[in-house]
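Many introductory courses stop at the sequence. We go one step further.
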Amino acid sequence: MVSRNTICLWYDGTAEEAARFYARTFPDSAVGRILRSPADYPSGKAGDVLTVEFTVMGIPCLGLNGGPGITHNESFSFQVATDDQAETDRLWNAIVSNGGQESVCGWCKDKWGLSWQITPRVLTDAIADPDPAAAKRAFEAMMEMGKIDVAAIEAARRG
């Protein structure tokens, strides 16, 4: 049964592939019920996967194979708070090496065009530093990065 509040993500026939990738990659993630279309529809045939219920880090999602008409953009993203460089590297590299694309300031896109912010907690803490000069240094360091470098953020914060 679909959760009362579920994020619906549009795919072009690849919702099941995406859900299985997320379940393998992120903790507290799983693939649930897969519904097949009972009849032909504009972008598919009877029996094709129509929807996939899944969770990503505990967030209920529904993958809808709606066809090529709509694509993801940066106005929606998953923000993943990481605890250290190893976790940051693992998640970033999993997304990018699976057909994804690097971006800036900790952002990347998966092969389906969905945006992810892989954000070490060190970065969030540094930008919120009560010392405005330390926060500014950390922020400016981040602005030069693709994948976030925890050691570089810590060094910038210290000055």
